[in-house]
Amino acid sequence: MTEITLYSSNYCPFCIRAKQLLDGKGISYNEIRVDGKPEVRAEMARLAGRTSVPQIWIGDTHVGGCDDLIALERSGKLDTMLAG
Known about the structure:
This protein is α+β, with helices and mostly antiparallel strands. Helices cover 48% and strands 20% of the residues. The protein has helices at 13-24, 38-48, 66-75, 77-83, and strands at residues 4-8, 30-33, 55-58, 61-64. A four-stranded mixed β-sheet has the order 2-1-3-4, with helices on both faces. A hairpin with a 2-residue loop joins strand 3 and strand 4. Helix 1 packs parallel to helix 3 (66-75).
């Protein structure tokens, strides 16, 4: 299974939804919280080119945010990406 990294914030509804989707599929992920950590948020923004959360990577591929993750799931591409 390919490693998933998810930058998130505690009360972000999009972060919660993305984690619910992954949890519902039984997929583990490495969650990095950016709350109160400007240096971590800055690193995420540098890597993603975006400042909003969540920002999600599957392996070395930047997927984007929650809407992007849901689109991958709906198109059937998420499972393929996770299988590596």
